[in-house]
Structures are given as C-alpha cells and as structure tokens.
Amino acid sequence: MAKPIVRIKNLCVGYNSPLVSGFNLEIKPGEIVAIVGISGLGKTTLLRTIAGLIPKLSGKIIGNVRRRGGIGYIPQRLGLVRHASVYHNVELGARCGIKVNDESGNILNWSSRKSVLIHETVKLVGLTEKINEPIRRLSGGQQRRVATARTIAQSPELILADEFLSELDKENADSIIRLMRDYVKNNNTAMLLVEHHLDRANQIADRIVDLGDFEVSLNEEE
After folding, report:
1. Comparing C-alpha atoms, which of 128, 178, 189, 182 is closest to residue 154?
2. What is the DSSP letter of 16?
3. Which of the 8 DSSP states describes residue 85?
4. How many Cβ atoms are within 10 Å of 169's Cβ, its own excluded?
5. DSSP-assigned beta bridge partners for residue 32
6. Alpha-carbon dihedral angle through residues 161, 152, 188, 183, given to the nearest 10 degrees
C-alpha cells in the first residue's frame, strides 16, 4: 500500500483561539480531496496551516514531500507578480521543478530545461499566446490559469489550492479540472483543495470532506 503523501492527526488550527479542532485526514498519491463547508468554518486557515504559513495550535502534520518545492500552494489571491510576465511567474515554480543533475550525476543545461518546462506548462493551460504578457493585463480567469501553471511547473508532491477554480467560466473550469486530475493521477501527486461550489468539488475530487463535521468556531473572516 502506498505511503500517504500527507497524514494529519488531531489537528487544531486558529489564531488566538481554535477555529477547527480534531481534524484528521490522510491523502495518498494520486488522490484529490476537496474541503467544503459554509463560509467562516476555517477552511482557508486550515489550508494555510497545512502549507506551513500559519503555526498549528496542536496536532500533527506529517508530510512525505521533499523539503524544497514539495508543496505547491495556490492561494485565493494567487500570489502572482503583477508587473512581471506569465513566463516569469511560471518560472518561479519551475526553479523548484527542475533538478540540476540528472540520474547519472551529469550537469545538464538547467536553464534550457527550465525554459522548455515553462513553455510546456504554459501551453497546458492554454496561454501560449500570452506568455510574454504582464499579469496585470490578463483577465481574472487567465491569472488563475497562470497560478495553476506555476504550481504544475514546480512538480510538487502535494498541491494545496484555495478556491482556485473561481472566476473561471464553465468551459475553462472543466478544462483545468481535467488537467489537474490527469496531472495528479499521472504523477502520483496528492491534492487538497478548498472549494465553495459542491458541484465542482464533486467533479474534481475523489473524496469530499465537509468541515462542518469537525469541531469549529464560527468566527473566522474568509
């Protein structure tokens, strides 16, 4: 049986006081899990805690990922460099996704391989014609595709995504869902996402976790 990519045990998250308590979850390679629930349950705080951006209050998060670049995170606000090009933003992920040495230990042309990876990943999300455009000139949906490409280029073992399908019309959302499902399955990656729309959660995820089933305090601003 494959070792879980991430194992979460009795996790308690929050700031000065707990927002979510007693959270348990395991995600295996090739599996996509969606967290759903009404606003204010602490979904974003939970995801940010798993990403290591917020200290946990108690419990354990055991990750089977590499230290550098092992977790890819797509935040609600995307974290893109707005004045920089699509190429540059995806490059930020590709820097972690390309190894300096090949398996034989020979030094390869890291810069060339990185450039190939960037172009291939941008093509996957359908933005080849925009590759030199600054982020600020893109639509909201296009920016979300750039954030998705940046994470794929990183080649993470675990992808964390917070409402990453918002601002996408149905056609583009369906395309990204197919892309992410194929990527996760073919690369034995694990994915944990927060999704507000239950129909989209059911479309992309193998399992649904309703945060309302855990002990929560309804006082978070999301």
Report:
1. 189
2. S
3. B
4. 9
5. 191
6. 90
In this structure, are residues 86 and 146 in contact, taking their beta carbons and an 8 Å threshold?
A: yes
Measured distance CA(74)–CA(54) in Å, rounded: 15
Indicate the CATH number for domain 1-65+157-222. Answer: 3.40.50.300
CA 119 to CA 130: how far, in whole Å? 11
Burial (CB < 10 A; 0-12, 13-18, 19+), residue 101, is exposed
* Residue whose structure tokens are 């006081």: 17
Per-domain residue ranges of the chain: 1-65+157-222, 82-155
Q: Which two tokens stand for residue 189?
A: 């990656």
Q: Is the separation of the CB atoms in 159 and 191 below 8 Å? A: yes
The percentage of residues in the chain with a pLDDT greater than 70, rounded to a whole number, is 88
Token pair of 13 as six digits? 């998250």
pLDDT at 220: 42
Report how many helices (DSSP H) and strands (DSSP E) the chain contains, helices first: 6, 9
pLDDT, tens digit (0-9, with 9 covering 90-100), for 108-117: 566 778 888 8
Cα-based distances in Å from 107 to 53, 103, 110, 118, 205: 34, 10, 8, 20, 39
Interatomic CA distance for residues 192 and 32, integer angstroms: 6
Residues with Cβ within 8 Å of residue 31, at least 6 apart in sequence: 5, 184, 190, 191, 206, 207
CA distance 20 to 11: 8
| Cβ neighbours, 10 Å, residue 115 | 15
Determine the pLDDT at residue 168.
82
Query: What is the residue whose two structure tokens read 């979460």?
Result: 8
